[in-house]
Design a protein that fits this description.
heterodimer, A: 157 residues, alpha+beta, five-stranded mixed beta sheet, 5 helices, 15% strand, B: 289 residues, Enolase-like, domain 1, 2 domains, five-stranded antiparallel beta sheet, four-stranded antiparallel beta sheet, 14 strands, globular, binds flavin-adenine dinucleotide, binds FE2/S2 (inorganic) cluster
């Protein structure tokens, strides 16, 4: 079936098997490899994208459900602004090791900071509970979020 | 396989009646996992995630109606006054899961660990089932028949749930291996209904389906009466009463040993949850909440 949707501001379409997830549609049909496939069961958050502005696991959205909707992936983030600060903070804080979880974290952290510019540690942990990292042990990820939040507060975009 | 994309509930019901084997898909947080892993290959999928009729939240005649398609993040944001419901919704999965997962899906899956289900049990909620030209309301315990078994007919969809609004405090709490993103090993929903002067308690993950702890409810209802506490919420209950209530809650369980916990641990967990939930409720009442 043909699915037509907006991805990162552009009109795209893909001819997919009807049971295809949005994640597979993005990766295997549109060549957007930033959203990662690590579990396909909603546990790891490495496939996080925005669907009509809401943070979701793209592996749990049927591609056809995204028809006519707007999807924003990690590739579509504006690195001049908030997401750039998040990305830089991850690198500087040492929150990236193998990097597989990083795009999902950058998406989830960007979502968090746009709703809560000064999150408490508890809020950060809660907001990132749907993103798994098998390398860092999370401490550096928390540092990165605090670093990004601080910088964004000092120089709001 | 085919995907059916209705725009209204009426259209969806016609499609369901014409294709009784079609599987409704809401937030996909249960169903997509089965689809991704090849455990489910239905002849067709019916996308109900866009039906405006299922996204309704409304109040009339002292009742609250919650559409089957309202996601947890919206329940937490908009139904905070129903504290146990908001707490249960907030405890589901992660932000990503709560932005998609729905009460209709929790009911459709009918897992004994479905976190919204004990809340519906103490609210004595009814489930609205619709088919072309017809609606029926089933009490929660007539809808949930067993693990992953419900009374829905092949030509029906879940429209939502409805319950009578009452005054009184309550809570939902659950035990798991993490504070977030965890399926309950045991859960408890407790309310003190000041209108009916009745205590209601329901257990999740502690039996083949959701269980009401009837003996515990009756015991505490009577103890609150004896203490004059329904008239004067400042009245205290002794620790022996709290312990005896917790014991009866644990006795109501029909737990099994499984990967998430042993039956004995579940009973122990329920005792702890019951003591805590009752302590919170009594404190709320003393504070006039
Ligand atoms: C990572 C993760 C964590 C989770 N954590 C929790 C948790 O903590 N607590 C918890 O309770 N659950 C949890 N779940 C399970 C799931 O999120 C919930 O059961 C959720 O409520 C399902 O809703 P949905 O809209 O996504 O359902 P879907 O997956 O779309 O559907 C589930 C079932 O309901 C049926 N259905 C849906 N809507 C209707 C309708 N309107 N009429 C008829 N049938 C319908 C579907 O056909 C299907 O059988 C988790 C899932 C994941 C992936
Ligand atoms: S791949 Fe989607 S949550 Fe893991
Ligand atoms: S850096 Fe390797 S999984 Fe997170």
């Amino acid at each position: 079936m043909i699915v037509r949707l907006q991805v990162n501001g552009a009109r795209r379409e893909a001819d997919v098997w009807p049971g295809t997830s949005l994640l597979t549609l993005l990766r295997d049909h549109l060549g957007l490899y930033g959203s990662k496939n690590a579990c396909e069961q909603g546990e790891c958050g490495s496939c996080s994208v925005w669907l009509d502005g809401e943070l979701v696991c793209s592996c749990l959205v049927l591609g056809a459900q995204a028809g006519g909707r707007e999807v924003l992936t990690v590739e579509g983030l504006n690195l001049e602004r908030q997401a750039g600060a998040v990305q830089a903070a991850f690198v500087e804080a040492g929150a990236v090791q193998c990097g597989f979880c990083t795009p999902g974290f950058v998406v989830a952290v960007t979502d968090l900071l746009s709703n809560d510019p000064a999150p408490s540690e508890a809020s950060i942990r809660e907001a990132l509970s749907g993103n798994l990292c098998r390398c860092t042990g999370y401490a550096k990820i928390l540092d990165a979020v605090n670093l990004a939040a601080g910088r964004l507060r000092d120089s709001p975009a | 396989m085919d995907v059916l994309l209705p725009r209204t509930l009426e259209e969806a019901l016609e499609m369901k009646a014409a294709h009784p084997q079609t599987v409704p898909l809401a937030g996909g947080t249960d169903l997509m996992v089965d689809l991704n892993f090849g455990r489910l290959r239905p002849p067709s999928i019916l996308d109900v995630s866009r039906l405006p009729e299922l996204r309704v939240l409304s109040r009339e005649d002292g009742h609250c109606f919650l559409g089957a398609g309202v996601p947890y993040s919206r329940i937490t944001a908009e139904l905070g006054e129903f504290r146990p419901l908001a707490q249960a919704s907030r405890s589901v999965g992660s932000p990503q899961i709560r932005n998609r997962g729905t009460v209709g899906g929790n009911l459709g899956t009918a897992s004994p660990a479905g976190d919204i289900l004990p809340v519906l049990a103490v609210y004595q909620a009814e489930v609205d089932l619709v088919r072309p030209g017809d609606t029926r309301a089933l009490a929660w315990d007539r809808f949930l028949l067993g693990p992953k078994r419900t009374a829905i007919a092949p030509d029906e969809l879940i429209a939502g749930v409805r319950w009578k609004v009452f005054r009184g405090t309550g809570s939902f709490s659950k035990i798991g291996t993490r504070n977030a993103m965890v399926i309950a090993v045991a859960s408890l929903c407790l309310v003190l209904d000041e209108d009916a002067r009745q205590v209601r308690a329901a257990l999740g993950s502690c039996g083949p389906t959701i269980l009401r702890a009837a003996a515990a409810e009756d015991y505490l209802t009577a103890e609150l009466r004896r203490a004059g506490s329904w008239d004067d919420p400042a009245c205290r209950l002794g620790q022996p009463v709290i312990d005896a209530f917790a014991e009866r809650v644990a006795d109501a369980a029909r737990p099994i040993d499984d990967v998430r916990g042993t039956a004995a641990y579940r009973r122990h967990g329920l005792r702890v949850l019951a003591r805590r939930a009752l302590a919170w409720a009594l404190e709320d009442r003393r504070q006039g909440r």
